[in-house]
Amino acid sequence: MAQTTSKPALGFIGSLLLFIWGIYRLSTITYDSYVWLIPLLFTAAGAIGIVSNTIYYRRAKRSKAFEAPPK
Question: Which superkingdom is the protein from (predicted)?
Fold first, then answer.
């Protein structure tokens, strides 16, 4: 059962790093070329990953709380 909580946690950390990297690159570039598209995609993908992994983690945690204890 540890896999149901560790996979979303690792995914959350990866998405958070992707989001932070995208925000950092967006804040340090000039907008005179198309170079800003890649950091924008990183930021969007990281934000989607953060939300989805948080929802998945909470559902897994809630369903684990309602399981019967092993005999």
Answer: Bacteria
Query: How far is the C-alpha of 38 from the C-alpha of 12, rounded, in Å?
Result: 20
Residue 34 has pLDDT above 60, yes or no: yes
- Could you list the residue range(s) of the whole structural domain that residue 25 is in? 2-65
| Model pTM above 0.85 | no
Long-range CB contacts (< 8 A, 24+ apart) of 51-58? 53/8, 53/9, 53/11, 53/12, 53/15, 54/8, 54/12, 56/8, 56/11, 57/5, 57/8, 57/9, 57/12
Domain count, the chain: 1
